[in-house]
Amino acid sequence: MVFTGSSIFREWRERRDFDADWNRDGGLSALKAVNRGFGGSMTVDVLRHAASVVNHEARDVKAVVYYAGSNDLSVGVSPKTCAENFVAFVENCRARAAKKDGSKVGVVYVGVIDSPQKRAFGLSPAVRETNALCRKWCEETPDSAFVDVEATFSNPDGSVREEMFREDGTHLVAEAYVAFKAAIEPKLDEVLKGVLGKSAPDDEDFLPPSMRSMA
Predict the structure, then answer these.
(1) Which residue pairs from 203-208 have beta carbons closer than 8 angstroms and sit at least 24 positions apart in sequence?
(2) 82, part of any domain
(3) pLDDT score, position 24
């Protein structure tokens, strides 16, 4: 599994122990997760570097978890362009996997966070539009899922949960990643079940073919 996108993901490996959060024994999480987020990236950057971020030659990628678009909206990129770049990225990753060995790649789009910074600059409508476009695509596309994080970062009355964010109003405090993970994990499991065709990897899935049983 590859996590990619902007600094919200990059900081997951800096402010917390990303490996401890995602690389556990047993079940779907037995698939190793790697963090390829890079700071300041926009959707066009993630698309441009798709081959290195999701390198099928280096690892057997079963799913990609994607968080990008926040930086785009902050500099005036349209929601439509954000969504188009996301779709192009997924199609690139899936085409390369199919060409390599015919394998499938699941994708999880994590909705852009309507952070204090976004609200202060009147960007909440653009956040909602971007998320709506990507949600629609995920709902219409096999092995794809959308993670709605509105409830994770908002109070019941719709106000932002200020305690989840650092002083810049954009990046997350370390503790916020606990709730962030709780929102992402069910959708990631859902996608992996579809890609793998079963509820969880068997122990033998991680053995070379010559060492597996014939049953």
Answers:
(1) 206/30
(2) yes
(3) 63
What range defines the domain where residue 157 resides? 2-203
Q: Is 210 contained in some domain?
A: no
Q: Compute the distance between CA of residue 205 and CA of residue 96 in angstroms, rounded to an integer.
A: 22
In-domain check, residue 120: yes
Assigned domain for 38 exists: yes
Number of structural domains found in the chain:
1
pLDDT of residue 25: 56
The CATH number for 89's domain is 3.40.50.1110
Strands 63-67, 106-110: pairing is parallel
**Which tens digits make up the pLDDT trace of 17-42?**
998 898 865 555 457 899 999 988 99
Distance CA 37, CA 166 (A): 19
4 three-class SS: strand
Question: What span, in angstroms and rounded, lies between the C-alpha atoms of 110 and 144?
Answer: 11
Provide the pLDDT confidence category of residue 198 given band limits of 50, 70 and 90.
low
Tell me the pLDDT of the chain averaged across its residues. Answer: 88
Query: Residue 26 CB: number of other CB atoms within 10 A?
Result: 9
Amino acid 196: pLDDT? 87
Query: Closest Cα partner for 185 from 57, 10, 27, 51?
Result: 27
pTM: 0.87
How many other CB atoms are found less than 10 A from the CB of residue 105? 24
Tokens of 17: 């122990």
